[in-house]
Amino acid sequence: MKNVSDAKLLAISAVQVPEKYRRHGNAVEDDKLRQSIEQTGVQQPLVVSSLGNGKFVLIDGYRRLEVARYLKHDAVPCVIDVVPRSASPEDYRDRLRFILDEHRQDLFPTQRAMLIKTLKKSFDMNNKEVGKYLGVDATTVSNWLMVDSYIPEVRRAIDAEEITQHAARVFEGMTPTGQHKIWKKHRKEVRESSASKLHRALREKYHPKTYPELYARPEKVLRQLERVQGKRTSKRRPVITKADRETLSGDIELREIELRDAERDLERFKLEIALSARTIRAILQSEKLRPLVPKSKVEEFERFAEIY
User: Fold this and answer.
1) What sign for the dihedral angle of Cα 254, 256, 257, 258?
2) Residue-level pLDDT at 230
3) Going by C-beta distance under 8 Å and a sequence separation of 6 or more, which residues neighbour residue 198?
4) Local structure of 241: helix, strand or coil
5) What are residue 60's DSSP bridge partners?
6) How far apart are CA 135 and CA 10, in angstroms?
7) Which site from 74, 115, 231, 274 is most exposed, i.e. has the minimal number of CB atoms within 10 Å?
8) How far apart are CA 113 and CA 145, in angstroms?
9) Are 221 and 203 contacting, i.e. CB atoms less than 8 angstroms apart?
10) Sign of the torsion angle spanned by Cα atoms 94, 96, 102, 104
C-alpha cells in the first residue's frame, strides 16, 4: 500500500463494497470478531480507495465493516489508497486485494491455488506472468497450482500438513482412480518416504502397461520409465549408480523447494512490514485515529514506524 495518502474515520454509508469482495468467515470467527469490535471498536483500519464526491470503495475489511454496521456504528477507521494515474482503478484494486489476501495470512495451499487461478482468469496471465507478479518463478506457480489436480482426500491432507506438497507429487499425472488407489494403499509411505523414490517405485509397481487406468497419460509415464532405465554413453562422466542419482536428484529438488519457500517467506515478511509500517504511520499522523490507539500501544507504534 505504497500509495496510502490518508487515514481517517469514514461514514459506513460512504463505503461501497464490490460483490466480489464480499467474503464471509465461519460462525465462530464472526462471533469472536463481533465481541472484539463490541468491546474495543475496529482496531485494524479498513483499506479503501476514493471514488470522488465523498464516496469510497472497499478493498479490504469486509467482515469488519459488516460487524460494525451490525453493531450500528456510524463510522469506521480507514486508510485511503490512491490509484496511480497509470493504472485502471478496478485492475489496481483487484491486484491490491489479491496481494492483501496472499500476504495477510498463512493461506492453506488449496486457498493459494484458488487465488492464483482467480488472478490468472481475471487478468489473462500465464504462469510466468503470475510468477513475475508474485516474485517467484513459473515452476513455483505450477507447483502451487498442482494441488488443485489432486483428489479431496489428498488436498485435505496437504492443508492439514499431514503430507507435504513435495510428497504429494507422487500423485502427479494420475487419474482420480489412481490417486484413490495409491492413497488408500500407500498413505503411510507417502507421509514418511522420499517423494522422488516413491514416485518411481509406485510407477514400477503399478506399471502403466498393466494399470493404464491409473494414469491420465499412461504412454507418457511409460516413456519416462524407459528413458530413465536407458543407458547413457559418456566417456568422461564418472559412473553414478541409479541409487546415487535418485538420492542426488531428491536432495537437489528438496533443496530447491526449500530455497524457493524461504525466498517466498522473505518476500512475504518484507511486504507485511511495508504494509504495516505505512498503515501505522498513517494512523499516527491522523488526528482522529491516533487517539483511538491504546496508550500502551502508541510507543510501540512510534518505535515500529521509526525503524521501518
Assistant:
1) positive
2) 47
3) 167, 170, 186, 189, 190
4) coil
5) 47
6) 34
7) 231
8) 5
9) yes
10) negative
Is pTM beyond 0.70? Reply is no
Neighbours of 209 (CB within 10 A): 10
- Predicted confidence (pLDDT) at residue 205 exceeds the cutoff of 90: yes
| Side-chain-facing half-sphere of 283: CA atoms under 13 Å | 29
How would residue 273 be classed by pLDDT, with cut points 50, 70 and 90? confident
E-assigned strands of 25-102?
46-52, 55-60, 75-81
Spell out a b/e string for 249-260, using b for 16 or more CB atoms within 10 Å of the CB, else e. ebeeeeeebeee
Q: Please determine, for residue 144, whether its predicted confidence score (pLDDT) is greater than 60.
A: yes
Residue that the C-alpha cell 490512491 belongs to: 82
Q: Which of 184, 109, 100 is nearest to 141 (CA)?
A: 109
State residue 180 phi and psi, 5-degree precision: -60, -40
Torsional sign, CA 201, 246, 208, 189: positive
> How would DSSP label each residue in 3-36?
TEEEEEEEEGGGEE--GGG-----HHHHHHHHHH
As given in the structure block, the three cell numbers for residue 19 are: 460483490
Separation between Cα atoms, residue 49 and residue 83, nearest integer Å = 7
Q: DSSP string of 110-157? A: HHHHHHHHHHHHHHT--HHHHHHHHTS-HHHHHHHHHGGGS-HHHHHH
Q: Nearest to residue 185, comparing CAs of 196, 171, 200?
A: 171
Q: How many residues does the chain have?
A: 308
Query: In terms of Cα–Cα distance, which of 111, 104, 215 is closest to 155?
Result: 111
